[in-house]
Amino acid sequence: MNEIDPIQDTWYSDLQRGLSFQVVEVEAQLVEVQYLDGELDAFDRDEWQLLELEIIAPPEDPLAPYEALDLLDLPEGMLPEAEDDEASGLSTPDGDDGENELE
Question: Is 45 or 100 the better-scoring residue by pLDDT?
């Protein structure tokens, strides 16, 4: 029986199954989780207490669980942002890369 409380947005390792997951919601009798591969699951509080868990650091790629989802479905603040237009490969519609040339 584990003594680790489920904390929303915290990552855990299920030592019995070798799986990593993030707690996405904690309710009175239910703990909803999302595995690194994006799969969703839920445990009732009794099941949670039977898991052999340890708290772990988040994955290096915080979007990993969402890769199978449409980017528009990501939680607010999770959308990746381009550093600037040049880094993203964007240019203006007329093909100008935004740099001014002296004539």
Answer: 45
Question: Could you give the maximum distance between any two Cα atoms of the chain, in Å?
Answer: 76
**Residue 30 covered by a domain:** yes
Q: Judging by DSSP bridges, how do beta strands 53-56 and 40-44 pair with one another?
A: unpaired
The residues, ordered by sequence, that sit 6+ positions from 36 with a Cβ below 8 Å of its Cβ are 19, 20, 21, 59, 64, 65
Q: What is the pLDDT of residue 70?
A: 56
**Of 87, 89, 69, nearest in space to 79 by CA:** 69
Domain with 22 in it: 11-87
Residue 73, pLDDT score: 59
Total domain count, the chain:
1
As a whole number of Å, the CA-based R_g of the chain is: 20
What pTM value is reported for the model? 0.62
